[in-house]
Amino acid sequence: xxxxxxxxxxxxxxxxNFRSFKVVVEAAAGDREAIAKAVAGILQFxxxxxxxxxxxxxxxxxxxxEDARFRASLQAMIVKAKPFGWIAEDGRSIRxxxxxx
Length: 101
Hints:
Blueprint: E1 2-6, E2 9-13, E3 22-25, H1 32-38, E4 43-46, E5 50-54, H2 55-59, H3 68-81, E6 93-100
Parallel strand pairs: 1-3, 3-6
Antiparallel strand pairs: 1-2, 4-5, 5-6
């Protein structure tokens, strides 16, 4: 699953791939502050290499949030990520690598 942040805002690519999770930003890392404002409520940057993505945003992503299979697979991904420290202590976000394009 890829959260792509482009000129038209965030989109969800490869939504059925629950084995890979990352954020792709189509901008330079130096633009992080402006991008952070544009994706507030969806993700929060943790430096230039990682971001915390709101699980609620993923659960309710337009076109996917209503799909019971998508939600079940997302929950399974979260369960698998938790022992590795990729789920926030409050359980509300999941950590992702960032690729800057």
